Amino acid sequence: MLTGLTMPELAFLIVCGVLLDYLLGETRRWHPLVGFGNLATLIERRFNKGGARFLRGAAAWTMAVAPLTALGSWLTGSAGLIAHAVLLYLCLGLRSLRDHNLPIAHALQRGELAQARLLTARIVSRDTAGADEGDLAKASAESLLENGNDAVFGTLFWFLVAGGPGALLFRLANTLDAMWGYRNSRFLSFGCTAARIDDALNYVPARLTALSYVLLADNRKRAWNCWRLQTPHWPSPNAGPVMASGAGALGLALGGSATYDGVSEQRPPLGRGRPAQAGDIHRAWKLVKATTVLWLALACAAGAGVYAWGAPHA
């Protein structure tokens, strides 16, 4: 471990962080990641102009991430376990996934299509103005599956590796990828560093998340085959395994057409089965929640095993 923490301590802190997130959710005001997003916007406006956009993007990424990660390291070194737990809580987004997605399902089930479109537009970048129930359910389910990795399991993985500073580094890098990692004229060169670093940090967690979805699937063979056969066709090296295995685990046909900035795009298929419906948003949430329980159980088992192995015997 890079933290100096023992496995029993890490297991205890992971349980604390997840419970705090699940019970309290996002802070209603002054959320650190929201503040970081505002800072990233200011930095991008200052640096993303003129020549040498790749170098400017690398410098901007370093300026945004390095000082805050160093601050996190200082805090955990000064305050100890409590700082690790607080950092993990602030970086997790499990409760946020539930609070942003289940209202979409409820609106669809009540026949409130306009409300469901508005709620979905808050969590995805695709156009929702003309979306029907199937489009909205698909968008929400995809968001839950992918962000299960980005907002929960990737954060837990890097917490296990490097404690609170590791979780913080991962979430900051992931946020910059979401803001700067677009393949368009504005961000192609400037956001390259953000995209590649996020790909590297997410590589192992994404595959552990995909494996978890397979293990928890009703039809493991279908989930595994979707992961194995569909991932090579998906443009994102990490979102592909996560969403393909998750869609296969749920028995849903996701991917396909989606509209961005008024232009319809045909994306590779994800999963196999029927189209998504409102109730499948609940099923996707339950899969993410069950995966969280699995990871917590494994962390606690590892912590207990290390503790028992190291305990003195009569």
UniProtKB/TrEMBL annotation:
Pathway: Cofactor biosynthesis; adenosylcobalamin biosynthesis. GO terms for molecular function: ABC-type vitamin B12 transporter activity; threonine-phosphate decarboxylase activity. The keyword Repeat does not apply. It is found in: Cell membrane. The chain crosses the membrane at residues 292-310. It is a multi-pass membrane protein. One of its GO terms (cellular component) is plasma membrane. GO terms for biological process: cobalamin biosynthetic process. It comes from the Bacteria. InterPro entries: Cobalamin_biosynth_CobD/CbiB. Keywords: Cell membrane, Cobalamin biosynthesis, Membrane, Transmembrane, Transmembrane helix. Converts cobyric acid to cobinamide by the addition of aminopropanol on the F carboxylic group. Belongs to the CobD/CbiB family. This is Cobalamin biosynthesis protein CobD. The gene is cobD.
